Amino acid sequence: MRYYVIGSDGQRYGPVDVTQLQQWVNEGRVTRTTMVVEESSGQQYAANIIAGLIFPMTQGGPQQSQQDPSQYYARPGFGQQPLYAGPVPNTGLSIGLAIFSMLCCGCMPLGIVALIYAIQANSAASRGDIGEANRLDGTSRTWSYWSIGVGILCTGLYFAAGVLGQLGG
Question: Considering 82, 115, 140, which residue would you say is the last residue of a domain?
């Protein structure tokens, strides 16, 4: 299996096999928390998930080199494409929030839009397009918050109408 490494500079390097990754681990170029993308599936996760990699145990955690990260992975024969645009969003939270806003807050149309954006964010994160995943995740949360707000407003108006009906009748 081969992997792309997302460097601290945001560049994508590779693809490389586990043997080359282990060499980079030994050189301090790849740490436990370095993000990697599986070439075949596009799934992104931390390097410590990869079976067969052995990370050095140091008192201060994994060693960090102070050299320019682009020099670590520069090898002739492959292009380097920027892919990183912020932290990987936890799209599962957005999907849960969208479902909650759709089912529990009384404004189903806004919740459905939020759910669609959350699913698109999850898909973008799965294929490693973190910038798009962050954008879609934010849009999903915005629609969810609007749905929850409209639901709270409608519930408040419903109860206010009931109280006024009791007072008037």
Answer: 82
Length of the chain: 169
Could you give the number of structural domains in the chain?
Answer: 2
Residue 121 belongs to what domain range?
A: 91-168
Per-residue pLDDT of the chain (169 residues; tens, 9 = 90+): 889 998 877 788 888 998 888 888 888 888 888 889 988 888 888 888 888 888 877 534 444 444 444 444 444 444 444 444 456 667 778 888 888 888 876 667 888 898 999 999 888 887 877 788 888 989 999 999 998 888 888 888 888 888 888 877 6
User: Do residue 10 and residue 72 come from a single domain?
Assistant: yes
Q: How far, in Å, CA of 116 to CA of 17, rounded?
A: 36
Which among 17, 52, 55, 19 has a CA at the least distance from the CA of 34?
55
Q: How far apart are the C-alpha atoms of 37 and 3, rounded to whole Å?
A: 5
Q: Are residues 95 and 30 in the same domain?
A: no
3-state secondary structure of 9: coil
Cβ-contact 151, 105 below 8 angstroms: yes
pTM of the model: 0.47
